[in-house]
## 1
Amino acid sequence: MKELSVVAILTVFICSIVTVNAEVNTSEGGEFAYLSNLQAYRVTFDKGVEYNYTEMKMGNIEYHEGIQLSGYQSTEYYAYFNLNGTYKSLTGLVGLDDISTNAAKVTLFFLGDDKELVKMDMVAGDLPRNINLDVSGVRRLTVKADQKNHFSLTTIDLVNMTLWKSAPTPVPILSATTIAPT
């Protein structure tokens, strides 16, 4: 596992106390649930977490399904989700919200049972990125943000974050990086 930061990750293991109760939907791509319906069981973002927040904007495009994580004073933030080993993949769109200050710089990690699934460096003004992560067997999903500029408003949008139960190849997600200019 790659070294994540100077500050050690302190984790409280909750074994089967919290159950996964997200509504499961079905599409041509298979069974799925939105991460925003799961709700984190522990959060350390000091400005808070909003679920299905209606004012998410990245690259000047508005999004309406997702989670918004905001931090200001700390350098590391975490959100923990209990997946209970139920899902195979996680897809979605990730980026810094347009409301983030120009100085906002963050390294975002997705960890499955403390193992790094993906690491992304983001700065204010970057376009959002599609992710497609293998979460097979993962019991605890951790979203960790390592803020590089202390005291800059950092707001991270996790848009259309979809947990797939049965689909090896999920339905593609339309994003700002795939939309042709008109």
Note: Residues 166 and 179 are 28 Å apart (CA to CA).
## 2
Amino acid sequence: MRPSPSGFKLKDLLPAGAMPSLMTLLVYALAGTGMGLLAMKTGIPAAPLAGALIGAAVVSMSGRLEIAEWPPGTRTALQIGIGTVIGTGLTRTSLEQLQDLWKPAVLITLTLVMTGLVIGLWTSRLLGVDPLITLLGAAPGGISGMSLVGEDYGVGAAVAALHAVRLITVLLVLPLVVKLLTPLGLGNS
């Protein structure tokens, strides 16, 4: 358990023999849910994900709770759920669009993967950070997927932190850039 600056610990509120890990998970879940719901009011894309991440991270970084130990199979269930949600978004229309967009899809994918590899390796060498963390952190995947991949290698939290910074920055900056560029004819194809 991490030391708390004030000396307060959640387990001090529980009766002897109670399951602090269950209570800990509940607090993390409530913090993530609360911030996720609050973030929805911002209108930022993927706001619930970013809000939940921030809510749970703030609780975790406070040092007042034990590190969350999720039950076995939780990550597998999340990976299946995320894959299912993404998969349901791929429709017949998506497939029809891919007939026209396969060249840009290949070009963008190769460029992002190569750029991620170069940036990841360069960042590792320049800053002395574990190359596994920087490679997964610079990968073009989403925060949830890449964090789960990182977790498989024991670096999930670090990868999540890098992707959280990237995601929040992109979600705050890109809509503003699009708003500024739209009057200049962007999106009027």
Note: The helical segments are 20-40, 47-62, 74-88, 92-127, 131-138, 143-152, 156-181.
## 3
Amino acid sequence: MKYVAIGIHGSFFQAVMDPFVGEPACIFANGTGIGDPTIFERIELDESRVGFRQLVGGYLSVQSVGNLAFLGISQQFGDDEVFTEVWWADDRVSLMGSNGLFVCAESGGGSLVVVNRAEAGPWEKFFYTQPPVELIPLQPQRAEPVGDVAEATTSMQMPRQVDVTDDVASVETTLQRPHS
């Protein structure tokens, strides 16, 4: 899967903002639904090594403060942003960080995601959930020239695009937002 939500016991990894700098700082396993903050692009580096880019910016990263190693967000991609996937027979996956230890959702989720386990137990095994197709960014389409250069056109699909029809009433109904 190219895009994933990483989950355990119904909670998904999501970045928590640092109130002092206004940027994502660390990852908690407390996301209750799938949306931009919980969707990651899974970047395959080789057969077992991957990186994760968050749709709202930055890469999952092993970070440390004192003796605490945890998942955070980095704006750069380097060794600390590479994880080794260990797949289990039940389709769960464990992630080993650059420090040689496993990613762990403490207490099975709901709190800070740490990177401090020598072995993979139940709190270190996650499911990748494929996000709904309407939440996945669409890729630009390659333009194929048709006829002469003056007739060639390019197109790029944008996510969450509304299909427009000739029926104005249908379009107005489609574009209305639910009242809160």
Note: Confidence is low (pLDDT under 50) at residues 140-180.
## 4
Amino acid sequence: MFYCQEIFDSIFLPMVQKTVRLILTLSAPMLLAAIGTGIAVSIFQATTKIQEQTLSFVPKIVATFAALVIYVPKVRVEGTAFLLEILNYISMMQVDAVLK
């Protein structure tokens, strides 16, 4: 039981925290682009009294796709580093399990 608690405290909790932080960090540019574009389109629609429903979707999709294209290298680098860290922890756990 003590060994499991040690793994939980030393590896699992920091890894969960890092995972949540990484998800928020990597999804933030696309979400902020969509939110900013949505607010701008809403203001434009309110000032011009154009109430076309499809007008709000196309700019959001374009802005989200543009942000995705811009941030793909960052997502790839940080995602790969995180994957390698997880695989390293898995290999360490396998070695520890064999040794015990």
Note: The two ends are 14 Å apart (CA to CA).
